[in-house]
Design goal:
3 helices; alpha+beta; 46% helix
């Protein structure tokens, strides 16, 4: 029984480690007047949260005025879910109404001379976006139960992801079938046009030779 409990804890820790790796922050450099976009494939009705901040190059001094960002988060259809202009930090959170690739774009304000700013960005979706600390406080559950809840959420999320990928696969298959069907009709049409042109050429040559009394 103790061995089984130990193995269960190891499995839970591995899964949590995987989730932590997914949810870890991204740090990147951005020059003045330049843009960098980060994408994330999000299913519809999935929760997504993110926070970003500019790293102060000198903690002993206030943030320079040149270290400002304009941030915009859009869906695959171009709908804007979050926008902030000339800020040092911010956060967003929403439930995705559309499935597809969401873009978080960062613009660094123009500055002369050019400066390079460092941005920390943390973007979580699905299970990783859920605030498990609040779940633990509200439910007054122990650590093991929290881990089991996380595991259940992860399994549910994986199942939904598989269904989503299956739907996308069916859409691609239908698109391939429709494309192949159109190509087949186009091939038959091209063959018909070629045969018609060849027949007209033969008829024209036969008429020409008959007029010249060659045949």
């Amino acid at each position: 029984m103790e061995i089984q409990r130990h193995n269960t804890m190891i499995s839970l820790l591995l899964i949590l480690g995987f989730l932590t790796a997914i949810a870890q922050s991204v740090r990147f450099d951005l020059q003045s007047g330049h843009t960098k976009c980060i994408s994330d494939d999000i299913k519809s009705n999935s929760m997504t949260v993110g926070k970003y901040s500019v790293v102060n190059p000198n903690d002993a001094h206030p943030m320079p005025e040149s270290h400002k960002l304009t941030v915009r988060v859009t869906s695959a259809y171009g709908n804007t879910y979050h926008q902030s202009e000339r800020v040092e930090s911010g956060q967003f959170g929403f439930q995705a109404a559309e499935a597809g690739d969401y873009l978080a774009c960062f613009w660094a304000v123009d500055h002369n001379p050019l400066v390079t700013i460092t941005v920390e960005f943390d973007w979580k979706s699905g299970v990783a976006a859920k605030d498990w600390s609040n779940v633990a406080k509200k439910g007054s559950v122990d650590v093991m139960e929290i881990e089991l809840k996380k595991l259940q959420e992860t399994i549910t999320n994986i199942h939904e992801e598989m269904l989503y990928l299956r739907e996308r696969e069916e859409e691609m298959q239908n698109l391939n079938i429709a494309t192949n069907s159109r190509m087949a009709w186009l091939s038959f049409l091209s063959l018909g046009v070629c045969l018609s042109v060849a027949g007209l050429q033969l008829w024209h040559l036969k008429s020409f030779f008959e007029k010249k009394k060659i045949i």
